[in-house]
Amino acid sequence: MKTMIRKRVTVLMCCMLLLTLMIFSPSLASAAKEKKIDKTNKAALDDKIGKPNAKFDSKKMSDMSDFDPTTSAMQGTVKGDTIKIAYVNTFSGPAAENGPIHMMPLQFAAHDINKRGGIWVDGKKRLIEIIQADHMSKPDQCKKICERMVLQEKVHVLMGTSGSNLQKIINEVGNKYKVISVNEGSLADELQDATNFGRYSFMPSPTTDQIGRGMAYFYGQLRKKEKKFYILCQDYSFGRGMADSFKAGLKEYFPEAQIVGEDYHKLFLTDFAPYLEKIKASGAEVVFTGDWIPDAANLLKQARQMGITLPFANLFMNEPNFLHAVGVEGTKNLMNIDIYDMPNAFTSHPDFVKFYKAWNNGWKKGWKAPFDTRLYEHGTGGIGLYGASGYWLFSVIERAKSLDPEKIIKVWEGDVYQYPNGKIVKMRACDHKTIQPLRVGEYVPPAEQKLSMSIPPYYWFQGTSSLGSEWLVPASKVLPPMDQKLDRCKGKSEWGE
């Protein structure tokens, strides 16, 4: 009995000593807090990815209150001997809205780095200059503008874009002239296969295969509820690629699932009724779609008008302006897989709060059109990835201490980096695809959005359903396909080892 009492007293004294140390030792208290945070976010790390070589540090972030998305870091506003980044996308024509959506977050990152004094490269500090390059969604114009950027503007990096066929051209120009090209917006797996790979091209963007398999993993291993799926995608390479990867993922992670229907529609369709009638009669519990706007918007609007309340498992059915047009009830239970967001980022990675507020406060202050709409309010989702890819690129250049592409390649191959929201990514050395986790989130009414928006005002939007519960798809479950025909990858595992 006395022995048991002595043991209890000893344990109590140890606990009191530890508490005292934590009170009078901020570093120890901080370490304990950090350990708790790491445990909360442990699945995001994935042991095989490893700890980051570098990460976004919110403590070093500049005062961003003067950020102007219409001018900051743009050519003409940054003087001197600069680090030149050509941002190549469509800024004119029917898809002109894509350019600003992708380039503006890159400007945000560049403005932050510039206010810190720039990056030390090749013996001196240089600011970052973003040069707008319009490919007009035309292949011939894409090649022309990229060559102009390289040969006349003497850019150090080509970065883009919407459209894998156009990103392929950007990569080809970069590899021809030995200029780094960065793909932050196209998803085709073949961009980095044995046929198209080049040492100078890097792909921070996830691939179609990762996204489709990630959604299948969610339903089969995390959700474990609905089993009957109807696939409806756009009838071209991306839409069919999304469908194929989802079907492959179901075979791998959810073999008991049923595909009760599968259709492909032409782009920019205005009447989805024939497809929706088939979905109604199919007995489907979920509709899987890779559609992007305007098709994604028209599909959801018409489904709800026809009384179809089924959830849509989607990638691009998340644009807040059209979601407000559909309303809270019509957007409930949408299931969105995202290429940047992380589950419960504000609680699992508290440093993200400062970064988020810098963006959101700037928007509230009154950015000029077209950046004044709800699309830009939070800086999450795809918009977040476009900026985070910029931070990763700038970190690589900073650590290379040079604009020499060979030195940049040496740092970036195999590099592990942590984005502002805590997401940890790895650039696979042999094919320059990125190993990364993904997030799946369920859309819920405003009162329930505090599950993910855990800081005031505790909701994302009042006029539409938005993120509530979130789940992590670990990187190990969605490793990007590796082409063994690529000599650099022969004999290596999907981790690149």
Word description of this protein:
The protein has 497 residues and is α/β, with parallel strands linked by helices. The chain has 2 domains: 58-205 and 350-436, Response regulator (Rossmann fold), CATH 3.40.50; 209-338 and 439-473, Response regulator (Rossmann fold), CATH 3.40.50.2300. Helices cover 39% and strands 16% of the residues. The chain contains 15 helices and 18 strands. Strands 10-9-11-12-13-17-18 form a 7-stranded mixed beta sheet, sandwiched between helices. It has a 5-stranded parallel beta sheet with strand order 5-2-6-7-8, with helices on both faces. A hairpin with a 6-residue loop joins strand 15 (424-427) and strand 16. Helix 10 runs parallel beside helix 11 (320-326) and helix 14 (381-400) packs across helix 15. The protein is globular. Mean pLDDT is 91; it is low at 1-41.
Please give a quick description of this structure.
With 497 residues, the protein is of the alpha/beta class.
User: How far is the first residue's CA from the last residue's CA?
Assistant: 56 Å
Q: What order do the strands of the largest sheet run in, or round the barrel if closed?
A: 10-9-11-12-13-17-18
Helix content: 25-40%
Low-confidence stretches: 1-41
The overall number of domains is 2
Tally of DSSP β-strands: 18
**If classified by CATH, what would the architecture of the largest domain be?**
3-Layer(aba) Sandwich
Structural class: alpha/beta
Radius of gyration: 24 Å
Biggest sheet architecture: 7 strands, mixed
CATH topology of the largest domain: Rossmann fold
- Large-scale geometry: globular
User: Proportion of β residues?
Assistant: 15-25%
What would CATH call the homologous superfamily of the largest domain?
A: Response regulator
Total helical segments? 15
What's the mean pLDDT score? 91
Q: According to CATH, what is the class of the largest domain?
A: Alpha Beta
